[in-house]
Design goal:
With 428 residues, the chain is an alpha/beta fold. It contains 13 helices and 15 strands. Helix 7 (205-235) crosses helix 9 (271-283) and helix 7 runs parallel beside helix 10 (288-314).
């Protein structure tokens, strides 16, 4: 069978989350016929109803693609039959502290019966070096009966989406591209040149996989550095926030990282473990810096809870008798994602110590209630109710002046109110 014209190429994007959905819609806009495969039936129902389940993707953009007949969502891999290009953007979490590639394997199993000679398959999910060829590609080849490099062009291009960041998106962020053989690289690069930003070709999928986990390990380690310094400098009576601001005036050789509750989200606390796991598995060695950074960042919610407990005691209140309002549950400002959120771990830590909690977050769905604590609106009465207000995640939607004006004792984790006058307040 001859290949279709570029304008009619059939694309399947597996995973319709924060990576897959923007990519699918960008491809639809570029002229591809796109099927978005998603195993979450509730998400598929939303997509079919014209409602975007992803922050930053407007309903109108989804409606335009559907109305043009260029995009549809499905929970069934059978709708991916006779695809020309497949892009896999599925989660790669941890299970019992080790890489969990179950979603990647499931995608390979799902696509294999529908793969045909001449197709291009691209993996975007973050994983340790070797995953594309030794796991994902091996399953595709075995179950389709087709050869990688001869029949199937296999490529790897790690996602670089930063949820909530309107400046850097799929179209503006350079795209690392690799593949098994020159043909796969050439085809993958041509695909991304149509829908994404500038492409950066590297020599192999293993290099691209390692580059991706390095990017996130770099952030993880530097967050841990500032978090540990914040603890030590406080005991030396030095303000970590002033220190970081001063260092940030250096125009070269320094990149700013701020102290906080630790590392959260789908990538930063997870991907370094993928790297350290494969090093230990293949070489029998530990990556000590990653292990130390992970220990520091995961310990931050406990450290902050200790600080809050001491602050309450200094004000004549035991934590078991205290009423605490926590503002912010997501892993970072202005998103609704609570995966690996250190703010959630802080809530659990405070609850374990006996505090009575109320929670506010303008983005996270109301059904998310760590430790069963009630969700409330951010009103003066709720702020005044609390013995301590914890500003854990400073969403732009939170009125900081209102928080300051009605809090008896404010613990501002990220110093979001540092430039504002206030009464009884502590920073990390």
């Amino acid at each position: 069978m001859g290949r279709r014209s570029t304008q009619r190429e059939r694309l399947v994007v597996v995973g319709q989350g924060y990576v897959g959905l923007p990519l699918a819609l960008a491809a639809a806009q570029a002229g591809y016929d796109v099927v978005g495969v998603e195993i979450d039936e509730r998400r598929v129902a939303l997509l079919r109803d014209g409602r975007s389940p992803v922050t930053g993707v407007a309903d109108e953009e989804l409606a335009r693609a559907a109305a043009a007949g260029r995009y549809r969502a499905s929970e069934n891999y059978a709708d991916a039959k006779e695809f020309d290009i497949a892009v896999v953007a599925v989660p790669t979490p941890l299970a019992a502290g080790e890489p969990d590639l179950s979603h990647v394997r499931a995608a390979a199993h799902g696509l294999a019966p529908h793969a045909r000679s001449g197709c291009l398959v691209i993996l975007e999910s973050t994983s340790y070096p070797g995953t594309t060829e030794d796991c994902f590609g091996a399953i595709l080849a075995r179950e389709s009966g087709l050869a990688i490099g001869t029949d199937i062009s296999l490529a790897y291009s790690p996602e670089r989406i930063d949820p909530g960041n309107s400046r850097w998106d799929l179209r503006t962020t350079p795209k690392v591209v690799s593949g098994v053989g020159e043909r796969a690289v050439s085809r993958a690069r041509a695909f991304y040149q149509r829908i994404a930003g500038p492409t950066v070709v590297v020599s192999s999928p293993r290099v691209a996989e390692a580059a991706k986990v390095l990017e996130n390990t770099f952030r993880h380690v530097n967050i841990a550095l500032v978090n540990e310094l914040a603890q030590h400098l406080r005991e030396l009576d030095i303000d970590i926030w002033e220190v970081v601001e001063a260092a940030d005036t250096k125009p070269f050789g320094f990149m700013r990282f701020d102290a906080g509750l630790g590392a959260g989200g789908h990538c930063i606390p997870v991907d370094p473990t993928y790297l350290s796991w494969v090093v230990k598995k293949e070489l029998g060695r530990s990556v000590r810096l990653i292990e130390a950074a992970d220990s520091i960042n995961r310990g931050m919610p406990r450290y902050v809870a200790d600080r809050i407990q001491r602050g309450l005691a200094a004000r004549g209140r035991g934590i078991a008798d205290a009423e605490i309002l926590v503002i912010g549950l997501s892993y970072k400002p202005d998103v609704d994602d609570v995966r690996e959120s250190p703010a959630v771990r802080l809530v659990d830590e405070l609850a374990d110590r006996g505090a009575t909690l109320r929670l506010h977050d303008p983005h996270v769905p109301p059904s998310v209630r760590p430790s069963g604590a009630p969700r409330v609106e951010l009103e003066p009465a709720q702020l005044s109710w609390a013995d301590c207000v914890v500003l854990a995640v400073p969403h732009r939607q939170v009125d900081l002046e209102t928080v300051l004006g009605h809090s008896a004792y404010l613990f501002d984790v990220t110093a979001a109110t540092r430039g504002l006058s206030a009464g009884d307040r502590e920073f990390l």
